[in-house]
Design brief:
This protein has one domain: GMP Synthetase, Chain A, domain 3 (2-Layer Sandwich), CATH 3.30.300. Helix content is about 55%, strand content about 15%. It has four helices and three strands; from the N terminus they run H-H-H-E-E-H-E. The protein has a three-stranded mixed β-sheet with strand order 1-2-3. It starts with 9 loop residues before the first helix and ends in a 6-residue tail after the last strand.
Length: about 100
């Protein structure tokens, strides 16, 4: 005879699936897109727009102008440190893309 187990709640089953599937990491990476203005400050947030995160941890960010992209590329180590301090080392790099903001 098999041992009977108590039913698992839907929330516990979903949490277990997310953890086993690797989606938990992707969800934490995606959370940085929402937290971007708070993490980088209003001045940088005004000229940038996070676009996506690759599975290996590279954040793609749109930048309004080439001079800003150049400045931000120099600031990448500090910005990565802020992102990783909050999100436990999920980000390996940032790719700054000069493109109009809001254009997806």
């Amino acid at each position: 005879m098999t041992e009977r187990r108590a039913p698992t709640s839907m929330a516990d089953a979903l949490a277990s699936y997310v953890s086993r599937s690797g989606f938990a990491t992707r969800f934490r990476q995606a959370a940085a897109l929402e937290a971007w203005p708070r993490l980088v400050g209003s001045q940088i947030a005004a000229v940038t727009e996070p676009e996506s995160v690759t599975p290996d941890g590279v954040l793609r960010v749109r930048v309004a102008t080439a001079p800003w992209a150049n400045e931000l590329s120099l600031m990448t180590p500090r910005i990565l440190a802020r992102l990783n301090a909050e999100k436990s080392g999920l980000f390996k790099g940032i790719r700054w893309i000069v493109a109009p903001l809001g254009a997806r």
